[in-house]
Amino acid sequence: MLAAVFLTSFVVADSPELPLTGRVMDHAGLLYPDAASRITEKLKAHEAATTNQVVVVTLPDLSGYSIEERALDLARQWKLGAKDCDNGAVCWSLSQNVAYASRWDMALKAH
């Protein structure tokens, strides 16, 4: 499942910290290295063209948190998006078979 979450200002509980190490973080081992490199280059070009900051992360599970809580917490930890815009997003895939409906609440604003 791939989900993107629009960053809002409501408060969520702190989920486990995950250091930001790049535009693509494959913690579930779902991506071939060349695929991760291609995605990284596309995200870099997208950010240069729009200022939208997008990180792709794969996780084995949500550590007991909802998809919205985990995405918002990670985006805040990583300080995604410009200060004056809601233009950061976390896109991910979970390796666990999770019964969530895909939820697309993303509305990135370019400068």
Looking at the overall shape, the CATH architecture is Roll
How many strands appear in the DSSP assignment? 4
What fraction of residues sit in β-strands?
Answer: 15-25%
Order of helices and strands: EEHEHE
How would a crystallographer describe the biggest sheet? 4 strands, mixed
| Distance between the ends | 29 Å
| Mean pLDDT across all amino acids | 75
Which overall shape is indicated by the principal axes computed on the Cα atoms? flat
Strand order, sheet with most strands: 1-4-3-2
CATH topology: Diaminopimelate Epimerase, Chain A, domain 1
Backbone CA Rg: 13 Å
What is the CATH level 1 assignment? Alpha Beta
* Unreliably modeled segments: 1-13, 99-111
- Count up the helices: 2
The percent range for helix content is 25-40%
Task: Give the class from helix and strand content and strand pairing.
Answer: alpha/beta
* Domain module count: 1
